[in-house]
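Lecture 7 notes: from sequence to structure.

We start with a single chain of 308 residues. Read the sequence below before looking at the structure.
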Amino acid sequence: MRVFRGCAAIALLGAVAVSPQLLADDFQYQFEGISIPKAVADEPVRSELSIEAAAKYLEQGSVAWSGQRKCVSCHTNGTYMTIRPLLSKTLGPPEAANRTFFVEQLQKLQSEPLDRLKQSTRPAQVIYIAAGLAEWDAASGGVLSAETETALQLMFQIQTDEGTWGTLDCWPPFESDAYHEATVAAMAAAAAPGWIAKVAATPDSVSAVGLEKLRKYLRTQPPLHDYSRVLLLWAAARMPDLLPEAQRQELRQVLLKHQKSDGSWSIRSFAAAEAWGGGNRAAKLKAEPDFADPPGDGHMTGLAIVVL
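Now the structure, written as tokens:
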């Protein structure tokens, strides 16, 4: 589905399309020898699933975005780094250049005033850098790196008083609300090897206080819609003490009730069109020919499998 093309890493669990011969202006982005085509409704579909093709697509998409856009994005290299390290036993370790880019971006953001880091997409960038580096540490020896610790400290330095982070509410499903950012921050903290225990030893530190504010926010702030509930369930799976088992079971039932008869899930059934990104995608969603009964999609089906 074009509106929600993103979350590339989870696409490993969905269908992988083969792109036809394309013209130069038909590419979503290009960098050096990598060309990633735009999504089109009539893309041909492979007759068989190819994990190798999916892995190549993810790797190239992350590298191309980093090389061309020079930033960390929730939908592209950000999600890649939060998921791909976990697949190292199956696919081998990701290219070290991905981590190097995240560290470089962290260093650039560190040079910015904290007030500036609280604005625009910068909070999301800091959160995803922390999450990506934390997952990298967990998958490559289980030792907390200095860079991950620095990223987590910076993340909590720009936290709001409510316990979440600033957002533009712009690009659903991921970079579209503060609730999403809080769930990714929780997973970053939980994934970092030994970090939660380490900050517990200094309960008055910014990080320790911020972690408690984050827990309180996710425990008390009502999710915006059922997609937010799925993200909350995902965060609780990574941080077991976040929610009681009874509440996690309720969230599982919310997810299961959306499953379609063919076994898939459709992201468009998880929230009203006006609820995504402050309503900035409502017109596009309602214009989709299958808006009334959307089919399952790779993003939501893959996410459901991961979370369950």
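Confidence is low (pLDDT under 50) at residues 1-22. Keep this in mind for problem set 3.
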